[in-house]
Structures are given as structure tokens and as C-alpha cells.
Amino acid sequence: MAGSIHDIAETRGILDHDIFRDAGGRIYFVLGHYQPRDRIISILKYVPDEQGTWIHRGTGQRYVRSYRHQGIEAVAGSEDMIKKLAKTDISSWEIVDPVFGTSFLEVPHDRIKDYMLPEARLEGIIEASDGELDDLERKVKLVAQMILKHAGNVDLTVEDMGITGSILWRGHSERSDINLNVYGEVKCRGLEKAIVSLARRHVMLARGLSIQMKGFDDVPGIRCAGTVVSSVFKRKPKIMLDGFKPGIQVRWCLKRGEFPVEYGSESYVDRGLATIKARVTDDKFTLFYPALVGIEGLEGSLKPERVMIYDTRFTRLLRSGDVVEITGLLQEIKDSGRYQILIGSKQHAKEERVTFLEAGYDP
After folding, report:
1. Which residues contact 131 (CB under 8 A, 6 or more apart)?
2. How far apart are CA 105 and CA 118, in angstroms?
């Protein structure tokens, strides 16, 4: 751990998809950048178990893990693991969050033993010789170096990137994805535009390393109607490495202080499931987790001003100029007379929908 958790929280900040371990050896993923000061909203991902098939490369410790990782299912998977540990201290860390009014796993800072920094791990991989790395680490090095090489006008350095997932905590195997983080609002937005341009021009990053634009056909809650044709509605740049089956993901991460809402400055009161028609007016924070997207209501007397997105399948989706029909949890921003729609609520996840009626600006 680079410094104490308290020093990290006050300087670098607690960032989306950091990883930490408690005194019991359990491994957690940070759930987004919108965090309280003395606790970490997180999901439990790996638990020590002699029968586990995920093995730490340094200590030999075996772990079992949750395989539920898409959208709000990741939170549900974490809750399933916590239920099996009901007689341990972790059960007391599931609390009703005062901002969201719903339960989250919130680990107190003083119960964290090791806090792992994705950018430090990636820097170590890039600085190492190929002979010092295993096969997967060499793939990480190649992908990161090619992203840096093809960043275009974005002033991107290795310090602006990190590696997370099992590679970060050294429990990786041939099953492991490559999960890269990119940090900073401006650099993330610029790099996304750069790699989308490469994909649409069919530019290869290196031999066997390409970028393809992907759609949202695999998400039942995302639909196309009106003038939007699903077969051409592709907004997700996906890095592909020939022969590498697990997959490569790039996660866009805000730095400390970049999110426009400070945790605790507002709280939310649920007002039930609602469907609205709206135009997207501000997509500055659409890439991040949670995403926050400004909207203009087009019908009805109640016009929420924004959409907050806690379901990873819906981040990166909404862009300025889109006209959409959204079904999600209506929330009153307490004591303000303002409203938002939440996508990624536990109670309504299966009912949440975004239907595209008109497509606005593409990245």
C-alpha cells in the first residue's frame, strides 16, 4: 500500500475500481467515485477459501469470487457472498446510506489493511523487462503502450492509466480480463474520441490489436425506435487482441474533485418508477461511474433535470442531442424542488429502459 488509506483518501482520493483488502484477506472493488469521507462504498469480490480457484501469485492464497459482474448484478453478487459471512464483522458494514436511502456495503477506512493503486501496478509492468513479466502482463504492457502511442492530441502518460481486476491484486490466470483504467475527465473524453476515430478508420494499433465499435444489442433494456436503427447504433469502442478470449476493457475514471456533486451535499428521496421523454443536453459525465447526464423534459409537468446512472451497462450511452424515452426510479433531490431519474436501482433494475427515438452527437 502506498501510504495509509487516510493519506490516499485526502490526496489522491478513492477512485472507481480501486481494489483493497481487509484484515481478513477479503478483496473488494471500489464502487464508483461518489464516496463518503470515512467509508468506501464497494462490492465484495474475492473471499479466501481453500477450495478456491483464484490463487495469489505471491502468497499462494486461494480465493473464491463472485461471477456476477454486469450492471447492478455485481452488487447482488456481492450481497450473496456477504450472506455467507453473516457471522463475521462484514455484516455490520452493510448500512443504509444517508445519501441514497438504500443499503450498500460501506467498509470503514480503519478496517482496510492494504489499498492497491492501479496506476502503480501498471507503471511497474511497463517499466519491467519482458523477461520479468508473465504472458498476461506482457499483453497488458503491449495494450497500454499502443494506447499511449495512438492517443493523438491527448497529452496522455502512463501516470494517467492503471490496471485493475485480478491483475492488480496478482491473482490473475489465463481466465483474466485486461481491465485498464484511464484517469481524468478531460483526458478520458479526449482519448475516447481518439480511439473511436481509429476504430471508424479501421486503424490497427499493432499487429493483431484492433478497435471495433460495438452496439448495445446485448442489453435488453436498451432499445432503438423512431429514426434510430440498432444495426448502426454503435457507441462503444472495444479493443480486440487476436487469440485473447477473456477480453479487454477500458474504464473511464474521474479524479478526485472532478464529479460535479460532492458526496453529502445532497440526498435523494425515492418517488417510484417513472417514464419520461427527454432530450440529452449535457453528456460531459456520461463516460464515468456513476454517470451524470443533463436532460430537458419534453412532455408532462414533471421534468427531471438529470439522469444518474449506477448500472455499468448504461454508462457511456447517452449523448448530447439524443431524444430518448427513459424508464427509471424518479428521485427528488431533497429540499431543492428538483428531480432526477436513477438507472441502476436495486428494486427496479429489471424494469429500467432507455429507448432511443433520435440519435444526437456521436463521439
Report:
1. none
2. 22
Higher-pLDDT residue of 19, 360: 19
Interior CA angle at 224 toward 223 and 229, to 5°? 140
Domains recognised in the chain with CATH numbers: 5-116 (no CATH), 118-220+228-253 (3.30.460), 268-358 (2.40.50.140)
Q: Could you tell me where the DSSP H helices lie in the chain? A: 5-10, 73-83, 118-127, 135-149, 185-200
For residues 285 and 278, what is the distance between their CA atoms, to the nearest angstrom?
17
Residue with cell 457507441: 235
**Integer Cα distance of 77 and 81 in angstroms:** 7
The pLDDT-based confidence of 1 (bands split at 50, 70, 90) is very low
Mean pLDDT value across residues 43-67: 93
How far the first Cα of the chain sits from its last, in Å, is: 37
- Give the per-residue pLDDT at 2: 55
Give the ranges where 30-168 is alpha helix by DSSP (H). 73-83, 118-127, 135-149
Q: Is 53 left (phi over 0), alpha (psi -120 to 50) or beta?
A: alpha
Average pLDDT, the chain: 93
| Cβ-contact 343, 314 below 8 angstroms | yes
Rounded to an integer, the average pLDDT of 11-28 is 95
- Count each helix (H run) and each strand (E run) in the chain, helices first: 5, 20
Amino acid occupying residue 315: T
